[in-house]
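Table 4 source record.
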Amino acid sequence: MTQQPSGTIRQALRQVRLLEGLDDAALTTVEELLEVAEYQPQQYLFHEHAPRESMMIIESGYVVVTTGIGQRPIPLATLGPGALLGERLLLGSPTHVASAYAKTEVRGLQLSRGALDQLAEKRPDIYQQLVTAAAETLSERLMYSAAQQAGGSALPLSGGYRTEQDSLGERRVPDEAYYGVQTVRAVENFPISDIPISKYPVLIGALGCIKQAAAMANRDLGLLDPEVAGAIIAAAEEVRQGMWTGHFVVDAIQGGAGTSTNMNANEVIANRALEMLNHHRGEYTFIHPLNHVNLSQSTNDVYPTAIRIALYFAINDLLQAMGELRDGFAAKAAEFADVIKMGRTQLQDAVPMTLGQEFSTYAVMLEEDMDRLREAAQLIVEINMGATAIGTGINAHPDFAARVCEHLRALTGIPLVISPNLVEATQDTGVFVQLSGVLKRIAVKLSKTANDLRLLSSGPRTGLYEINLPAVQPGSSIMPGKVNPVIPEVVNQVAFDVIGNDVTVTMAAQAGQLQLNVMEPVIAYALFNSLTHLRNACRVFLTRCVEGITANREHLRQMVENSIGIVTALNPYIGYDQSAAIAKEALDSGRGVVELVLEHGLLTREQVDEILKPENMVAPRWKAT
């Protein structure tokens, strides 16, 4: 419902960013156009794609903004007292791009479309001020929405802000944000992938580990006040636990060699530590992102070390998924151990084998690749903490590197070691090339396996039709009854993605210059995506495909008996010349080899069955003379 606002709201309006630049006369003009609207919990204020009829200043209560229509809309932000809602109306947007509902009882001050039109006509100066303020507020909110769509939790926004300053000047930072001015600049500078670093919680956890270990080392060396160090350590622990992941909002692809990521971490930890010591966010006199959180460090040792730690954990996740898939193929190999079939080379009939042998190769290939991946993991334990800018250790205590590494080993459980040459370690990205190459190897072999399964299941009437893949979805919008091998297809596509990522890593690694490779953000982006996509693909491959594969046993045996290639297995028993004659007759007549062997009396049915027993096909065998 709506009603006219009371005169008691003037002071509240003074705190609203939209109206802060208005003088008393202008504020009175706007106030006369306002109407009060009230909403009950769960009541929608508006729906996505609906026409915009008004904008609102939240006076009390909280409103959740969501995107997506259906059962599971994605929360973008929770707006509190003083926040603007629907300000795009001032920017000419005719329909809502999101939905909003009341989380609690909500009281708001609305400006209708008609009221705004009236204001634009009579007081265009006031109207333009509102448009400018709305644009600035909307820009800030977009920083949050990127993080939310990447999986973060919706952050409350009151509409308030604080002003922070760096060497380039001032920037407004939302009151609720733990990040600060340099993070705001990075969000403005790098709207590239729409994937914030919060998409990779393993990286955020690694940053928390590093900042925690650095504070411990600086405390041990007497470089940090114990109270300040304690607050930083506690705040970094919360980051490790994922409590503030939604505040890591910089884009994964960024210029500056990872400085924006490092500063995002420094600012979040500094502001949370300030809060723990009963200071306000942004009061950096007490705990500073650079002077305290980043003490004895540089982006050039923090960022590559964080990547290595995060990759180590991500590799272990992939190894687990690969192991599960390997076991799945091994189980199928055992299940199909007694299923005879024709092997093929160059897509032509070769010699008999078992379906179990065929599936066992997929398990062995995975195990071999797991060994290569474990070897790659051992290469990334060498870190360059203490190198600071280029590896000379400038501005770091002589004992800092050893201390911080000791704490990192304890925090992560990873056998980390400090590189013997920090100058080399700071500029060299060869370990990432090595890992990327292993991931490409895994992708290539997984793709080959997926190709095999698609081919073996082809048909059902006009293909090989040796195995059946589980039907997981209808295959066509025009061909009734068609079912496609969609899981192997998606595994193929993941492989293509990983192979492309390997090219990215290769190009980025060679693009390094002198004492630093500034392309590490895209290297990290490519490697994390490859690891994540391969892990997910392995699990989907197992649960949605491999576990449900069945064999067409009778069809497989018939194909063996009809195959000309079977004469190779019969050769030791009937001789090469007889085998060649039977092969030629089979090819000319279209009849089966076994049928002709029996007809010519070269072998009995019992002898043929004995020769073609699966256990006689799985190892070297020769007719005794």
